[in-house]
Every structure is written in structure tokens, then in C-alpha cells.
# Entry
Amino acid sequence: MLSDTNNKRAQFSTKIGVIATAVGSAVGLGNIWRFPYEAGSNGGGAFMLCYIFFIFLLGVPLICAEFIVGRSTRSNEIKAFEKLAPGKKWFLNGYIGVLASILILSFYSVVAGWTLEFFIAAVTGRMPSDMSELHDFFSEFISGNWRPLVWTVVFLLLNYLVVSRGVQKGIERLSNCLMPAMTLLLIAFCVNSLFLPGASEGVGFLFSPDFSKIDSHSLLSAMGQAFFSLSIGLGGMLTYASYFPDEVRLGRCATTTAVLDTFVAILAGVIIFPAVFTYGISPQSGPTLVFETLPAIFMNLPGGAIWAALFFFLLFMASITSTISMSEISIAYFEEEKKLCRKKATALTIGIATVLGAICALSFGPLSDIRFFGMTVFELFDYVSSNVCLPVGGMVTSVFVGWVIDRKIIDRQLNIRTNSLPWVKLLIFILRYIAPAAIALIFLNSLGII
Ligand code: PFF
# Structure
């Protein structure tokens, strides 16, 4: 095991640990909470197909791009761009990433806080089993004045405790055991959902695409969801790769991460939609969809409270393995550029996220009237970070790796000795032409500019 002591930069210790942490960053609320509600609001099956298309066409190449920049520089995001293109303005992309990571951390922690409320409610027997009572329970909770706020702060404090202990000890150990447990539980719930009365309708909603439901906004949302889910576009994977050992094969790690991440999102869809149709919930309920649907599934199972407690505990854990990677983006920046010690850098990041998170937490209740472009603060943060910052960040990184950095660096990072391997050529082609053009087209189209 390598340590993060002295002037030696921290590194993950094992290859399996690297995959587990990359997957740990990718798999989180994005798969289980955000994917189903985005799919539900954007027409189901067609959205899912677009999402999968973006994961593999743009997502995998962009993870590789972030990995290459991160590992070749072994620096925080801003320094990484600066090292590879000294004296140029590319480092500005790093600032967008740091900013977006704090925005995401703040609204994400609110939802992670909800998982804690549900966990405690299940453990203490407060979780109702009747559908309408469940609905009231949840609405009363999120519109309350203090509980959502308290849970957001508690979650951020727990995140602080893990992250301030350092990269290796905190992150790696947690990820290694929790992700497999989470996946097994999801598979079990998936099988259960397939026996619900609304199963065929739910599965049909998810697997029979109706492309008339797709417009430029849903395309942008599918792309934003793919980026969000893979933790790309703001430097999440870049920052993690700066801690990867040299032996890790970046291409393989990127593909494994994308496949597992997509698998979990589809499992979540197969769990949620049969229940949505069984219990008469609207697929378009938005951010609250999963939190109204899941308890209904659990509470109708024998020993429901135990299932609910187990599930919300694991969802909380999946959230924390993602938030530690988001936090790491700005912590690495504050540590290395602003010369703060790790504890101070972590405290500053979590402090800013707590203030912003508090506003997001209250935007379902007391602050719900504060709206920008018709969106609450929570929705605004989500929209701006996922549908603006991530695509823009992804596009810049793609152009940067495709056009700016030396081909030798790419080959070395991908462990390539002959430069004729077809997959590397394809990767560079996508990074140079396809990704920037696709992102720009979808982005401008959704703004109504073209
Ligand atoms: N990929 C995470 C999820 O799907 O929950 C969210 C995320 C993590 C986004 C880390 C960005 C990031 F840097």
C-alpha cells in the first residue's frame, strides 16, 4: 500500500481498488434516483436508449480523456490543464469543474440526506405502509422547515469525516465492500418488481421506445444524465486518475466503469417503473419519484421495514462514495493551489456546500417560491451543473485531449507501444470530431440557437 504522507502524492493501492473507486464514484444517486426520474419525465424507453448511446459514444471516450489528463499530470484539475498546456487558457476549464462540483455536491447532499431520513424512519418503525400515507409522509418531510436541512448537514459532516482522512484509507476501503452488496440487493428488488401487477406496463414503458417523445431538450437531458452518471465533464474522473498507479489499464477501467454504471441504472429503472404503474404514481413526478415509489415496494414485502432500512443504508453509502469523489475535485485544488492542509481544504469545500445545500434543502418548502426561470434553487443547480457545466466541460476536455496534448502522452497513458491500434484511433477520432460536434449541436439546439 502506498501512503499519502510526506511530499509523495497519494495513490490507490490495488487495481481492484481503482475499479471499485471509479465505479463507486459513478454509481450513486445519479443511477438510482436521477436516472428513473429523468427517464420518467422524458418518455421512458426512448430516453433510455439515447442515454445508453451517449454513455458509450461519448461517455467512455471522455472517461479515457479525463483519465489521461489526470494520470499523466498527477495534479488537481486546474494544474493538470496548466501542466499539459502551459501559458494557455485551458486551465479555465478546471475552474468550471471546481465550481460545478461544489454545486452538485450541495444539491446531491440534500437527496442523500433524504436517504438518511428514510433509513431512520424504517429502523424506528415510522415508515407508513399505506400508499397515501407514504405520500403525505414524504411531502411533509421535504417541505418541512428543519428536518431536510438537518439531514443535509449531517450527510455533509459524514462526508467530511471520510474525506478528511485521506484518499486511500477513507475512500478505498468503503468502496471495496459496499458496491457488490448494493448490486446484489438491487438484483433481488428487480426480480421482486417483475412480479408486481404493473410489471408489464412498467417494463414496456422502459423498453419500448417511442421516439416521438424525444426533442432537443430530452436529448440534452439524456446527455447530461450520461455525464452526471459517469462523473465526467467536471473532472471527477480526472481527479481520481491522478491517484491511479501506472499499471492500471485506463481503457479497460473506463469501459468496466461505464458497463457497471449502466447496468445499475437499468436495474433501477426495472425496479421503479413496474411499481410506478402498480401503485398509480406519475412517471413524471420528477425528483420525488423514487422516494415515493421505493418505500411502497418495500412496505408491501414481508419484513418490509428491514428491506427499506437495508436499501436506504446502501443508497446512502452509494451516495457517499460519489460525494467523496466530487469533494475531492475542489479539495485537491485547495490543497495544491491554495496550500491549505487537507483538513482545512475539506472544511472549506464542505462549508461552501453546506451553505448552498441548506438553500437547496429548503427549496421544497419555505424557499419554494424563490424561482429562477421557473426553477427552484435545487432544480436550478441540478439543471445548470448537469445540462450546462458537464457538457461544456466534457467538450473542452475532449477537444483538449483530441487536439492539444501530445499524442505520445496519450499512447503512454493507454499503455500503447504501436500507434496503429484501431480502438485508439477510434478514440482519438471521437475526441477530435464526434464528441465536440455532438455536444455543441445538442447544446445549441436545446437553447434554440440552431
Ligand atoms: N456519478 C455520480 C452519480 O451518478 O451519482 C454523481 C457524480 C459523482 C457526479 C462525482 C460528478 C462527480 F464528480
In short: DSSP finds 18 helices and no strands in the chain.
